[in-house]
Predict the 3D structure of the following.
Amino acid sequence: QVQLVESGGGSVQAGGSLRLSCAASGYTFSTYCMAWFRQTPGKEREGVAGIDGDGTTTYADSVKGRFTISKDNAKNTLYLQMNSLKPEDTAMYYCAACWGKGTLVTISE
């Protein structure tokens, strides 16, 4: 049974830090890319950060330089270190695994 369990959320003052964790089980954690999303009531879910199986990371512009995504394959755990937190970072944060291999979309002018 595949499970993803997030933890580490809480209340901090602006400028503070939090580290979120996502414990994964039921599949080969190291193989798949992982990502953090967030959602605030009334707003669309937003991708925050992602990490590929090879460790390549991507970030939303709104969190670049403040958030760091990482994973520990030995512990089957994904992390999101959030520093210099702002009021606009307030949201419910979710982790997700990327099951598919993806499909390329190329937009030409």
